[in-house]
Amino acid sequence: xxxxxxxxxxxxxxxxxxxxxxxxxxxxxxxxxxxxxxxxxxxxxxxxxxxxxxxxxxxxxxxxxxxxxxxxxxxxxxxxxxxxxxxxxxxxxxxxxxxxxxxxxxxxxxxxxxxxxxxxxxxxxxxxxxxxxxxxxxxxxxxxxxxxxxxxxxxxxxxxxxxxxxxxxxxxxxxxxxxxxxxxxxxxxxxxxxxxxxxxxxxxxxxxxxxxxxxxxxxxxxxxxxxxxxxxxxxxxxxxxxxxxxxxxxxxxxxxxxxxxxxxxxxxxxxxxxxxxxxxxxxxxxxxxxxxxxxxxxxxxxxxxxxxxxxxxxxxxxxxxxxxxxxxxxxxxxxxxxxxxxxxxxxxxxxxxxxxxxxxxxxxxxxxxxxxxxxxxxxxxxxxxxxxxxxxxxxxxxxxxxxxxxxxxxxxxxxxxxxxxxxxxxxxxxxxxxxxxxxxxxxxxxxxxxxxxxxxxxxxxxxxxxx
Amino acid sequence: xxxxxxxxxxxxxxxxxxxxxxxxxxxxxxxxxxxxxxxxxxxxxxxxxxxxxxxxxxxxxxxxxxxxxxxxxxxxxxxxxxxxxxxxxxxxxxxxxxxxxxxxxxxxxxxxxxxxxxxxxxxxxxxxxxxxxxxxxxxxxxxxxxxxxxxxx
Lengths: 467, 153
Fold this sequence. Notes:
Shape of chain B: elongated
Structural class of chain A: mainly alpha
Distance between the termini of chain A: 98 Å
Shape of chain A: elongated
Number of helices of chain B: 7
Helix content of chain B: 55-70%
Number of strands of chain B: 0
Distance between the termini of chain B: 71 Å
Order of helices and strands of chain B: HHHHHHH
Oligomer: heterodimer
């Protein structure tokens, strides 16, 4: 009888617990339903995307996860040897940017000596994310020298503009835009790189849309004994996960008066083979202002350097590390926030390497520290040679006596710049980067000997065979 | 009589029983909809039910052990009780993690589960590795070299 008054209260408590449990089970049920739904329908078609849909925000309606991460390339985040800091600047009518990246020329004034007489000695900043590619190209002070429309090939979404210019002929549109002045070409383009530049509408399959790469890779494959290579017909899906990035992250030059963008790969992808190609067509980017040497500017040979590394040999491509899969609910989505893997070690590295994130990062940074040290020594050696050459020239030494040293400057400078301009500080191919910098130091020092000793014959290693 | 404590008590009882019944019903439905019973089986497809294990499952399907061992053969210990205790514990923690979304990616095996897998290698391959294990100071692990045999990673 004494328990009686408590019984309803106890019943109420049991009822409450039952209700709460039901709520929890229902929440779980809804969660399971959502995941099942996601797994069943990886995407909903909201709009139709055709080969004339350029605006990424329209593609983004069908692919919201990919679009969301694509938009994040506006982030400015540094790693030890790359990435940009947001530097405030006062906008002007000529350049409305209120934020730019830090100046590399101020960080290392030796770069001004290396590029004396060339536009890069006026303005060269740390690269920012894809979102800025068009603005940073439009407003760099390098425009003062009059750039051609060729630059658009990689600084804008050009697939549709090329197709429009060429009346449906991509290559024709490419040729026509190459010959325009930059300002005119600029009016033909709207976006930085967009979905349509790498994806086929409808199937979303990867595709290569840049004529420079299509022609460059055909020339390279021909050197390997593969005739008539068509990248969109012959490449595997995994290869395309590197090729779509290789469309732009490469060494190149503007060929002839028609300024045709050309990738110098017909002898191979290694620095020696590219250098031999430039010699064979007697190309020079400019004449060095202090020494009179006919020199070359290396661009950003990420694709070529990756090809020399262990990741490429193992079939690991750019997208595997720079665009790793990320989980969104039940979905596996390619992360379109393209960035340094050092900012995303778990997804980028640990999928293959079961090692703690800190350790992986330390391994990568060790490679970069060592490469940077060599790059620093190569820079000193080159500046030493430039100083000696310039002094010999001022002292009135005849050109004939300086030609060996000048050609060594051309070679040392290109080898050094090949690593300096490459965006991984050696990581893409550590041994190859160290070899190239070692040779750059040697060529610069041999150049200094050649100035002192007229009988000196430089020792140059043979160019590796194409195959 | 209507307001007697006895009558009020039986109304409350009715409501509580109904609530428990609803909870049970929803629970049973969720269990069935979430393929709850499949987790008690040895079917490897069950391990990929909640999507997270799909890469491991598809890698196992193309791997060298697919004809020799299922998930449970390597990831649960020998013995019925130990097996279901492991299943229950992993099931609880996995579903908590995957429902809340709070877990490390890519997923990584816990030390205790790694120890189970290590032991299961030996259960089958003991005759072959006997000589290696005779002098093992604890630092030799099958998985440090043969990590990819089950499902690559």
